[in-house]
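Just scan this pair:

***
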Amino acid sequence: QVGNGIFGIDVPTTDEDGRFKATLYEGLYAIDVVSPPQSRYRIARFQLPVADGDALTLAPEPRASMTGLVVDPSASPVQQARIRAELMTPNYADLDLNRAEQSAPSRTRQVETDAEGRFALLLDPGDHRLHVEIAPRRGLPAVQMPITIPPLDTFIPGVRVAIPPAAALVADII
């Protein structure tokens, strides 16, 4: 999305070379680059002056790689746990470009843990809600936790998700 505060335009997609064309009035523009969810590039916001005839080059950075481990109450790895990260609030390197009143673009990433309980996700910078779900036959509860990916970080190692014991319901049948 490209706009100067008065006018805004949506450029649906770039061509195969990553280019798009838009005719703009001279001025200062906020430009949001929202790459496809399967892309390795992070969302980005740029603020740039535009003069008549300018050609702009925008280069978004790769997403941050987050690795982690899911363990059960006995600290044993949990295999085949489903990990889903949902972007709640984006976070840009230039703090002046963060806008609390704007909703985050839809960004959800999902993976499963391997045989050793490990997982890896590529995430955009910002505040995420991490959902961890384990197969019901394991008798372990689902867990949600907040994760913040700082705007300039590219690697977040060793996130540990400890699954608490499931609650038990004891009833006397009379």
Notes: Residues 46 and 58 are 8 Å apart (CA to CA). The two ends are 65 Å apart (CA to CA). The mean pLDDT is 83.
